[in-house]
């Protein structure tokens, strides 16, 4: 078995092991789940070592016959576009296990779902076969919807169904587009193939339509404004680990889809629709931020900040140049780290105060000074202060945007002001001020919480001050990609 | 010596201070202030060595540390630029910072956030040094935004209170508006020049379309307006006075707010090519100098008067840059750092002795209680008013003479008139604080005392610097890198202009003396006579209210409307849940048809056949 298969299936093995444990042994369940995510993390690091960043194409490729009649193969590979996302996935998973100590309902099923979700996400990033890709893509929905529906809070059923149906609707169009591609390719060449790069540069008089179909599926996942309204609900109701994965990785699937499928398959159509997509991204950046400012629920606020941040990512992607696309990938990683952190931090408050209303939480700097320091650092990274990771991504995306079209870059830059507005508002209301009521006596971070937070915080500064290794890792691939 | 003159060392010490105090400061609380100050002292020492070492070789040095970002042709290093301009800035920043650090050990002694204060202060110095020693625009931008961050953290230092936190947020957001311009400017520079380092950009500047240069200059200047509190973005600085007074001295008077002036001077090769941008800089500077000085006349809050005076003096510096007299602008920046830093620290000492009183009408006759504070305050006051022999006289006069010789007489005249107002409002404040009758209550009188030596010695150091700084040939030193205006005036005209400045300064002082000390002219009668003007000035031209109505409230209202109407109602309500509802209803309807009775189905079939027949026929 190749290392990529190992990467994908280690979590599944973990979930099978969990299946045989009695569900009362919660401690063991948590420990084993954590162990498997850690082993997966090390496998991910091993993959990084094996990865040769000076090569542009797919590496560590694995091919096995799967369904010969359809031309479907079990085909895996990794390149500069996926490597960082894979690493982010294996990095966030153990953190999610650690951050889920507050989960007490059906601990076993929770961790099984978590591990299955990790498999599905890695599968999406590593599949080169369209059918395989789509299976993982759809499979991802199930554990996530279960997360929201079972371990969510308040309005969780509504949020779970909305999440499921909304993304499902997108997936149907995606499936339709992919099947169309498959048939067109067959008609052109007479070969049944589901190998993704075979579809690149497909020409069809219905190309625009198919591009829109596929993009629709991806745009919902991103989420591109105005297809975003599932996100605040899903985020708000999901348990902390769910929100972290949702923000950290699931949202990247949409962008990854654009990068991996929509744009290379339809280069001309992408160019044609780019102004519209950029327009929507800019609306997302600015209005997403303004709407975030008016939220009364911290989690909803962070969710809307995601809409704004992903707008920058899309700006980078649809600028079709080296800086923009590099920036968008770096920005995806940053968003995973920063927004992941924000959700973890909000989760920690929720565990203490059982509320997410901004109006109910105040003065944390007095009662939880260490927590507050981390919180402020994270908000600063999220608003792209130079020296933190957020700046590198946002700056590169903006350079890309300016290069493509100065006006779009200029408008997107306004997001710099908006992000300061809503993030400083959170700081002002939640962190600063005098604590009242139940906010007075709160315990500061525990050792477990430190372990959860410190790795992420260190990446804020690592990427912010020395991003070069990360850029080098993906540069060759993107150089080739841009051509 | 050679190894000690690496600019990275200057930055290393404050960084060490931050790390030490972050991780161990809370264990060794007593030493936090000394360690922080010691680090700044070492930075100052290295800067001095750098100055001597550099002045021997007399070239522009660049030192690369490492590559920060490299994506395609976008190649940005963390690298330092050492030339007379950055050396002057390094020396000014480290020396004033050192003095303020030492002063803060005394001033912040009782504060529970003592360690945190010194962490922030070190972080500020680090960012500021990064800003002034950067070799490229983007690295400068790191420092630029990080000083804004420190300003935010330090304005809101007393975070339990509402007002400081709000003021900090306001400062950051207003600064971000400027930073937005700066960032766009940087990106445009990269797209047109392909590089971002100052030297290469200055070499290729002639190959670029002048219109683009002008656009770039406008965007960069937007950044300056935000950071250096010029019209129309000056509104954050008066509110920034909510922070501890040493912060006001260091960040909001002596160093950070001058970053904009430094940027214009640093980019003189860009601004120099765009007469349009130069005019904008000069006019903005003069207008700001004048208007904020008029606001200071009627204000009653000691620190806010000083804040408006800072805005006004920054206006002078921009005015100088705008007429091409960059070295005069930087000269004024340096002297201003000393005397304005001193004014704030002395004001802090006044507050210290009056348990935090800020209203100058509740002071009076303090010269009796606080002699050191009094004398140093007087020296600083004379310096800012342009009293002959003190540093402010030399630098301000250089600006005014340059203005006159460049032929911009109207601007020159406004500058001169502003100098009169400056002398007046500063001495109005001095009269009300140190002379006249005691107007503070008896309880405070018992506690009125001079500050401890750890606070008064810094005052004396700054007072000495405020006197001698004018004699240091900073403009000549700077002229090695900064272009000089080519106009030459006959020396008789020059002397005449100098005399005029002296007269104006004295006139301002005398006016204040007559009104507030001798009561020969009644201030209340003037107030009555010009009531409308007085109200206008007292309310700061209603600019805050204007912005509130015109920008803040509409943006808030719009965001709320957008959230409620577009996001929640239209998109989520109508499209998303609406389509869900449609499907649900369709399901219900078709569900109704599934009755299970054959006769119903036969009826449907019949109806369907009839409809089809009707259509066909």
Keywords:
heterodimer, A: 483 residues, mainly alpha, two-stranded antiparallel ribbon, 2 strands, 74% helix, 3% strand, B: 617 residues, 26 helices, globular
Topology (elements, then pairings):
The complex is a heterodimer of chains A (483) and B (617).
Chain A: H1 3-19, H2 26-50, E1 59-67, E2 72-78, H3 80-98, H4 107-126, H5 130-151, H6 156-189, H7 207-221, H8 230-237, H9 240-265, H10 267-293, H11 298-317, H12 322-353, H13 364-367, H14 369-382, H15 389-404, H16 406-413, H17 415-431, H18 447-465, H19 468-482
Chain B: H1 7-23, H2 32-57, E1 61-71, E2 74-82, H3 84-107, H4 114-133, H5 137-155, H6 162-193, H7 198-203, H8 210-227, H9 236-239, H10 245-254, H11 259-266, H12 268-271, H13 275-298, H14 302-322, H15 326-353, H16 371-385, H17 391-405, H18 409-434, H19 442-447, H20 453-468, H21 474-478, H22 491-517, H23 523-529, H24 531-538, H25 543-593, H26 598-616
Antiparallel strand pairs in B: 1-2
In short:
The complex is a heterodimer of chains A (483) and B (617). With 483 residues, chain A is mainly alpha-helical.
How would you characterize the overall build of this protein?
The complex is a heterodimer of chains A (483) and B (617). Chain A is mainly α and 483 residues long. Chain A contains 19 helices and two strands. Chain A has helices at residues 3-19, 26-50, 80-98, 107-126, 130-151, 156-189, 207-221, 230-237, 240-265, 267-293, 298-317, 322-353, 364-367, 369-382, 389-404, 406-413, 415-431, 447-465, 468-482; strands at 59-67, 72-78. In chain A, strands 1-2 form a two-stranded antiparallel sheet. The longest helix of chain A has 34 residues, at 156-189. Chain A starts with a helix and ends with a helix. The longest helix of chain B has 51 residues, at 543-593. The termini of chain B are far apart. The chains are: A mainly alpha (483), B mainly alpha (617). At the A-B interface, helix 6, helix 10, helix 12, helix 15 and helix 16 of A face strand 1, helix 5, helix 6 and helix 25 of B.
